[in-house]
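Supplementary Note 2. Why include the ligand at all?

Several targets in our set were suspected to adopt different conformations when bound, so apo predictions alone were not considered sufficient. For every target with a known small-molecule partner we therefore ran a joint prediction. The input for zinc ion is given below.
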Amino acid sequence: MMRVSELAALRLWESDPGRSPLARARAFLTEVATPEIATSAAPAAVDRLAVGTRNFRVLRAYAETFGPRVPCEVACPACDSRLELEIDVRELIAAYREPPESVTVRHDGRDYSARVPTDADLGAAIEQHAGAEGLFARCALAPAPEEWPAAAIAAIESAMAAADPLAQIDLALRCPDCAHGWPAPFDALAVLYDRLAAQAQGLLLDVHRLARAYGWREADILAMAPARREHYLALLGA
Ligand SMILES: [Zn+2]
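The joint prediction is reproduced in token form.
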């Protein structure tokens, strides 16, 4: 079960550390306990997850909490026309496979190995404003990063994308107006957080209406089954 409960959504929303992907990933993975991570969900264990595995869990949590479809609106980069589409996260989830810890490619008779990036690697690269180069320097295992020719770096990047396909999700979009095609990045964590924020704010509005009408305590209203809460709101004509 990866469903995000109402209370978990509220906690994630009110403690949202402002769009930092690593902090959000940690909060989400710690809050939504998963059997694969030890019961304590220690931050260290969470940080060691491959980015694709984290995205896989985020997408599953989205599907189980809000259903599989994500409504999106994007602007065509060529003609600026607005596209409204629905992403089916089940299709993205189906692309998941458990990434290996490291990947090796052979170039000019020499082996080049690198670790599959984790949330900790991604977080460090972002914090140090090191970009893709910084991420590569953290993850290169052998030889040392400065000994890699550009062709080996390109080869390992393709091998990484194949080994951890959900690490970076790009949607292949095509504009119906001008036929321009482009890869649009899909940030699963941001999509989930936006939806959780909307849910949390809706929940607080319900609490506000019920507390004002009946004088009930917030904790009692939140403890109520959603169906019962809905019923009282309907009685109020809200
Ligand atoms: Zn267009």
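Strands lie at 69-75, 82-88, 102-107, 110-115, 140-142, 170-174, 181-185. The longest helix spans residues 188-214. Comparable summaries for the other entries are listed in the accompanying table.
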